[in-house]
């Protein structure tokens, strides 16, 4: 390094966990103008500010690859749920649901309503959405998918059928606008009612547009229960036909009948990955969460209500209890409480561990920020992996966990200059105490911040220190890098 130039920030005495999976080593990190300019010894450095990182792990900032923070970036720009677990970049617009491009005059169908209120769907173009994000920056960086379901809702009256030729053309035009504006790819949520009637070809047409400009395809597959393997085949077929890298969202196998089936699904994904770029993300819990719906409820042994528009008083209550109080069956109560959301206890812990342990597994929280009583994954996914699964259960090494939260997602989602600690990289940095890092959010108390995250830095600016937000909002909108 040119020693003469002074640094904005020096992080000294920590263990460097660089995001590649390499073993940690002792080193100091120098930051100037939002980038890492040196990793080495601070002995001769001059810096405007210094962070003492002795006893701590200095990591690239965590990338939450699966979020629904599209509107939360405006409503709650300090994003404490994410920043308190070390996240510096969120990827929004998942599961086919993006905030743009859609102007809603009436409530859009679930799961769009899960992500934002009707009035929040106010962007006719994706470029207007990204410009608004840039004009009101958040603490963290954001990269955004354009959602197939949002495109359907923007051009179709009746979502219970395949799109017509004219509607496909209209979706394609809006999708191209989104990609040109900087959407990082296309997401779909064929599981959900407003997209379930779409044949694979309808999605392939949009993903093809993304592939042409270097975009990625993220799929909440059509079935994560009895038909999970066929649904993976469908997603892989779409990605291959289009020529786009595939990320299978929140990979899981649901329902007691399917416990153990992750052996087959992981083998299938690994096989597909031998001839096509296929990745997946996972959250570290054996319960899922989404809109109230019969498919999820019927696969679950227990359902917890996260919110209900007609009956807000039942947020946090078990469905069986709410149903008894309403004098209804659980099935009837689902309808009476909708629109609303639930946590579904529907997975096997061994499957969760097997999926987490796969070396291709990235971490995505899939948290839904505007739920009254959210799934604890919103506040605890990253720290639960590092504390519970890495330090306590010893599923894999700390360095490997950090790679799946940083270097791996940066390459899968094509986020340039992020995800590793190296000279020239953008200075998104998370400093963790490996001895104390832990999630504290539980199903009973789902919004408790994590412990053990000492400092979080975005583009060289501290956004979290001493257990609290600094108030700074240096987050960038990450527009898809030109192909
Ligand atoms: Zn999803
Ligand atoms: Cu999702």
Structure notes:
The chain has 483 residues and is of the alpha/beta class. The protein has one domain (61-420, 434-448): TIM Barrel. It has 17 helices and 23 strands. The chain has helices spanning 72-75, 80-83, 112-115, 126-135, 148-155, 165-181, 193-196, 200-212, 228-242, 262-272, 294-299, 319-326, 330-337, 349-357, 377-392, 398-405, 407-412; strands spanning 7-16, 25-32, 35-40, 47-52, 57-60, 62-64, 87-92, 102-103, 122-123, 141-144, 146-147, 185-189, 216-220, 246-248, 278-282, 287-291, 302-308, 340-345, 361-363, 429-432, 453-458, 461-465, 468-469. Strands 1, 2, 3, 4, 5, 20, 21, 22 and 23 form a nine-stranded mixed β-sheet that branches. A six-stranded parallel β-sheet has the order 11-12-13-14-15-19. A hairpin with a 2-residue loop joins strand 2 (25-32) and strand 3. Helix 9 runs parallel beside helix 10 (262-272). The two termini are 31 Å apart. The mean pLDDT is 96.
Could you name the key traits of this structure?
binds copper (II) ion; 17 helices; alpha/beta; TIM Barrel; about 475 residues; binds zinc ion; 9-stranded mixed beta sheet; 6-stranded parallel beta sheet; globular
